Each structure stands twice: as structure tokens, then as C-alpha cells.
Automatic annotation (TrEMBL):
The keyword Transmembrane applies. It comes from Microbacterium halimionae. The chain crosses the membrane at residues 29-60, 72-93, 113-136, 172-193, 213-236. The lineage of its organism: Bacteria, Bacillati, Actinomycetota, Actinomycetes, Micrococcales. Keywords: Membrane, Transmembrane, Transmembrane helix. This is Uncharacterized protein.
Length: 240
């Protein structure tokens, strides 16, 4: 479980740096972030996992450009997902968590939460903020490429404005509702998004692809959120 948390945390941090830190300063920030990751992983007795998570984040940075998918396609996404699933389902929570783990005590309404579980939840949250946007944009660019080069440019990242902010908020909300078992409210969120976007979608272009663009982006975002909720739920169940 701790490997999944550190990996998602490292990958999510990489994309946040790429989004908000000027290019000239990223090298120093990446270096400082890697040192912080090693310190954190050492404190929870997972230094090897921290080094591996840093390596995975470096591969993600090279293969998944922030502006869209790279030549590797969706393989980096599949790789991060596989690492997370195997780490949670194959290993679960550890009995010992290093210096911090021995001092860690957190009671929640659902029972005690282990340090490994908290690291996973934080990693999932950081990943959903910007890395999920990178995945969605990669999917939309793949869809644009499939539509052909004759497109007039309407189905681009800027068509449905606000997605960069709405997406992370929506995914965090869906994860929270899913973990709370409020499935009816999740359906309401999905329906509300369609209703709010309907006027803009109805003013479709001559190519008739705006609705498809909206559906592809929304479904990718929802799948990421629900998969993240399932990962956290499974991690909690295995930690009991």
C-alpha cells in the first residue's frame, strides 16, 4: 500500500510542478521534491519504495507531457495503475511503519487509519488534482487525432472552458461521495454536469463532435475518480 501512495504522490507532484512552476525553476524544484520524497519514505521505513516511486515519476514526466499524450500513449497510465493495484491488493498495509508509523495514531469515524492508508489517500488526492487532467487531455488529443486533420480546430482543449478547475473539484467530490456510499449524489453530480454543459454542447459545430468531446473527457475523468475511490476502499478493507 505504501508503494502506491508514494507513487501517486510523486507523479501528482511532478504534474503540479509542471503546471505552476516556471520552466526555468523546475529543475531545482524537482530536485528538492525528490529529496523530500526520500526523507518521507525513510521516515515511514519505505526508502526503497520511495526511490522506485521517484523513478516512476521521472518516467511519467518524460513520457506524459503536460500538454497532452506523448509517444508512449496510455502505457504510462496503465503502468501507474498496475503498480497501485498490485501494491494495495498484493501487499496491503504494513505492521510497522518506521519512526512515524510507531508514533502514528489517527482515529476516524470509520475506525483507526494507518499511516500507510493516509499516505495513499494523500497520494490519490494529489494525483487527481493535475495528473488526472493530463490523462484526460491525452485522451482528448487522441480523439482529436482520430477525427482527422480536416477538423476546424473547434474540439480542442479550450472549447469547454473551466475544465482545468472543474475537473479536479469534480473528481475529489466523486471520490468523497463514493467512499461515503452516497451513490445517488454521485449520479446527481454526473447529471448536473450534463445539464450545465448542455447549452454549450447544443451549439455544436458543423462537424458534430463537441458532444463526443465532452463525453470522452467526462468519462475519463469519472473513471479515474471511481477507480481512485475503489483503490482507497480496498486499501482500507485490507488494513482492517
Amino acid at each position: 500500500m505504501i508503494f502506491a501512495g508514494l507513487t501517486l504522490l510523486a507523479v501528482g507532484a511532478v504534474d503540479l510542478v509542471r503546471q505552476f512552476v516556471p520552466r526555468m525553476r523546475r529543475g531545482w524544484v524537482f530536485a528538492a521534491g525528490f529529496v523530500a520524497l526520500l526523507v518521507l519514505s525513510a521516515a515511514v521505513d519505505a526508502l526503497i519504495f520511495g526511490m522506485a516511486a521517484g523513478a516512476i515519476a521521472a518516467v511519467w514526466h518524460l513520457s506524459m507531457p503536460s500538454a497532452g499524450g506523448g509517444r508512449a500513449g496510455f502505457w504510462p497510465v496503465a503502468g501507474v495503475g498496475l503498480v497501485s493495484v498490485v501494491s494495495v491488493m498484493g501487499f496491503g498495509a504494513r505492521a510497522e511503519g518506521g519512526p512515524w508509523g510507531r508514533l502514528w495514531q489517527l482515529e476516524t469515524p470509520a475506525g483507526p487509519a494507518s499511516l500507510d492508508l493516509v499516505v495513499l489517500v494523500v497520494g490519490v488526492g494529489i494525483f487527481l488534482l493535475e495528473s488526472a487532467n493530463v490523462v484526460v487531455r491525452a485522451g482528448l488529443r487522441s480523439e482529436n487525432a482520430a477525427l482527422g486533420s480536416t477538423q476546424d480546430g473547434s474540439a480542442r482543449d479550450g472549447v469547454l472552458r473551466g475544465g482545468r478547475l472543474i475537473g479536479p473539484l469534480e473528481r475529489i467530490l466523486v471520490v468523497a461521495l463514493a467512499l461515503a456510499g452516497a451513490y445517488t449524489l454521485i449520479a446527481a453530480v454526473f447529471a448536473a454536469k450534463g445539464i450545465v454543459r448542455f447549452p454549450e454542447i447544443s451549439r455544436d459545430t458543423a462537424h458534430g463532435n463537441r458532444a463526443e468531446y465532452f463525453l470522452v473527457g467526462s468519462l475519463l475523468s469519472w473513471v479515474l475518480a471511481l477507480a481512485s475511490a475503489f483503490l482507497v476502499w480496498w486499501a482500507y478493507r485490507t488494513a482492517l
